[in-house]
Design goal:
2 copies of one chain form a homodimer. Chain A is α+β, with helices and mostly antiparallel strands. Helix content of chain A is 31%, strand content 28%. Chain A has 9 helices and 14 strands. In chain A, the strands form 2 sheets. An 8-stranded mixed sheet of chain A has the order 8-10-7-11-9-12-13-14, with helices on both faces. A 6-stranded mixed sheet of chain A has the order 1-2-3-6-4-5. In chain A, α2 packs parallel to α3 and α2 packs parallel to α6. Chain A is globular and about 60 Å long. Chain A starts with a helix and ends with a strand. At the A-B interface, α1, β2, β3, β4 and α3 of A face α1, β2, β3, β4 and α3 of B.
Chain lengths: 312, 312
């Protein structure tokens, strides 16, 4: 099974009745408790699959585990709260690596208002780390809720995390890799404040965090809403030292992708000023269930997996 | 670091201020939300460390992952609610094994009132499964709260799970292993109902689930309360085909161990009748911070790790 097949398969085992508002197909499960909603997410990182210790410090690893989970909470407009860590380690736990790892994890959680409150440690042939994180919100922003004719925003320059890996694969030493790429891959920042403000002010009709690449995550939004999208190529915020392909299909951006009604565009502009942070309008949602890239006077159909197919 | 060293070490990274009532040193983290308490626990199982597929079916594995987490909720007197699964697999996910695994997991969760609402799947060189489980209670039973002169109860015959592994290590085929041992190891039952009734009726002053052996888990209770305990050997419910040593130090019993004030002994008797389930009084708490086993007219000091040292 590939990831999509798995998500389809597992649905029948997920409980999605009151008070559970959302189980599958979201960044977090959503449970209604009184007037609030509990957000519940988990994300694991495995050595040599998700990271290599040759270029990731233990501090950065702890931080990244936090961010990958925090970003799921951000993408629903939530406030992160409580976390449990599972640590599977083939080697004895020694202070030389566990100290920086725990510092990276807990400092990053605390920076965004969350805290570690327990966990489990186990022996394991491969080194893996798993975080389970609970968040809260009064207004969860789901993937569905968008209609054709809305504006698509992203919150960051895209593709830099993926570009970092291109440098690594070429064998370029860390100190020679551009700072913006290192930061994007090794010290990404989750969009907790932005997500929360979009939720509180009800400015986004749908939202997701870009973890598998702009096109794929945008397509998830489209599928949930039975719509398509048109992106304007020169509006896409491509990171420095980054290719268009990386911006479209690279992963681990931890940016928010969200849709906004026309009537709220002005408020989005004000929010951007207030946060002193650019928010990039990259296109619009359309009725036709396809993805297009508009490049000069050409309209190019693109497939979600990043494969580009020219129609004109 | 061994487990105890780890628990001591990690404390400084755990947040334990309002509304977090308990972070380390409990089976679950406890968070106060309005009048209720949220319980939050996670437990991982790793192939060849916690189980072998040679004697564990995928259905039983799913069930066991559920039980190891459910038992943590039971030990605080909670109701299990929502769970997230992390699945790390070296092989492609195929229906022949994922079907029974998911059935075992979700049927067991549902049997005790919990449900699966999401998760994460990752590639991994070793096969591991992790569950994060949220529960609720109005009255969490913590490990501390007990004083000298109280009565110590356990809720099950002990040592059978450990005895099962003795048969396995001897190379005895599954079909020749006594049923009670197979059931104890492969299909253990978490004490959700008992835990909940002890909580609702405020009958236990402290509680823990026996996952690392009677002595070790009893000693955890003693340490939390700065007390000791005297056990009466012939009151300890040793399982059939099980040794005293296995009952004292074998793990994975998923029994509840709890302390009861004298004034509540009658109520415990009635609860036992009501549930149609024996509850075994195995000794009393004492002021001296030691463990003793009373055997005929001998009083033997025992060490928590199971090493028996005769003093008289």
């Amino acid at each position: 099974m590939n990831e999509k097949e798995w998500l389809d398969y597992v649905k029948k085992y997920l409980f999605e009745k009151k008070p559970v508002i959302k189980a599958g197909n979201e960044d977090c499960a959503v449970i209604k408790i009184n007037k609030k909603y509990l957000l519940f997410t988990t994300d694991a990182l495995v050595e040599n699959i998700h990271f290599k210790l040759s270029y990731t410090s233990y501090f950065d690893l702890g931080a990244k585990l936090a961010v990958s989970n925090l970003s799921d909470i951000a993408s629903m407009g939530g406030e992160p709260k409580w976390a449990l860590l599972t640590l599977g380690s083939p080697q004895k736990i020694r202070k030389d690596w566990i100290d920086p790892f725990m510092e990276g994890l807990t400092q990053t959680l605390e920076k965004y208002g969350a805290c570690l409150i327990g966990g489990d440690t186990v022996k394991s042939a491969s080194f893996f780390i798993n975080l389970a994180l609970i968040g809260e919100t009064y207004n969860p922003i789901l993937r569905n809720g968008s209609k054709p004719g809305e504006f698509i925003f992203v919150s960051k320059h895209l593709g830099e995390s993926s570009a970092f890996l291109r440098y690594i694969k070429k064998g370029i030493p860390l100190e020679k890799i551009p700072e913006n790429l290192k930061k994007a891959h090794l010290r990404p920042e989750p969009e907790i404040i932005l997500g929360k403000m979009l939720s509180e002010n009800k400015l986004a009709t749908s939202m997701i965090d870009i973890s598998d690449g702009l096109l794929l995550d945008l397509w998830r939004i489209c599928e949930e809403n039975q719509i398509g999208a048109e992106l304007i190529e020169n509006k896409i915020p491509i990171g420095k030292y980054t290719t268009l392909e990386e911006a479209l299909s690279g992963g681990e951006d931890y940016a928010l992708l969200f849709t906004v009604k026309k009537e709220n565009l002005e408020k989005i502009g004000k929010l951007s000023q207030y946060l002193n942070k650019p928010l990039f309008c990259i296109g619009t949602t359309i009725k036709e269930k396809k993805l297009y890239l508009i490049k000069d006077d050409q309209k190019i159909q693109i497939l979600p997996r990043g494969y580009i197919h020219f129609t004109k």
